[in-house]
Structures are given as structure tokens and as C-alpha cells.
Amino acid sequence: MADSVIHADPVAFATAWFRTALAARPEPITDGVEVGDVEPETLTGPMLVIRDDSGPTTSLVTAERQLGLSVLCEMKADAIALGLIVHALVPSMPAVAAGNPVAAVLEQNGPYLVREDQPGYRTYQTATLAVVGVPFA
Q1: Closest to 118 measured CA to CA, from 70, 50, 69, 67
Q2: pLDDT tens, residue by residue, 73-109
Q3: CA distances (Å), origin 128, targets 48, 64, 70, 121
Q4: Three-class DSSP category at 126
């Protein structure tokens, strides 16, 4: 009998999930969006960068994980539009499906435009997810 669980890597899950979700969208801004966990040194097109801000274990089998979602684009209007699309997609993450650890979206903040001293534009948002683990023997 397992008395503890391992929670899936939320960035690995979210990266694959957003690649699929964005590729399925009809909006031109979602064409070719790169999704990853490392910011590029040089922006070559729209990108979604996903960061794990962790969170508390809430029960024997559940935990909260907060994701930081940065949208990077060369144009301000594109960063805002893509940020809003990403925000709209987050509530679709929970599912009863093999490999999907997301049980619920507990909270979303943003997106908001981040003022930076670098080329391009960024919107940032967070999503707090309730996730379930798998037994660990």
C-alpha cells in the first residue's frame, strides 16, 4: 500500500498541453507559438514561457501548483492578444484523462503588460492549479 504520492511536473504537463491547445486555435497569432520553460536570448516569434512557482501539498493525494505564464511577442498588440487567449484556455486544463494531473483551476491572475527594458513585449499571468498525485511505493 502506498502512503505517499508523487506529483507530475506541472511545467512538462502544461508545456505539452499548451502546445496542443494553441495549435488548435484559429487565431493567426497562435500560429507557430513556441512553448517552453526557458526564455530565449533572442525572440524569433511569439512565445509562451511557463514557470513553476510551486505551492503547498493540500492532502495525502492533492497539491496546489502555481504556474507563471509569460507571453513574449515583438508587438504590443500581439502580446496582449496572445496573453488573453492563454488566459481563456487555462480553465480547459482540468480533465479526467491519462497523464493529466489537473483537477481544478483554483485561481487566475492577469494577464497584465509588463514594462521592461528589452526588445519586444511581455504579458504575465498566473494560474493556481489543484493537482493530484500518483501512488509512490
Answers
A1: 70
A2: 999 999 999 999 999 999 999 999 989 999 999 999 9
A3: 17, 7, 15, 24
A4: strand
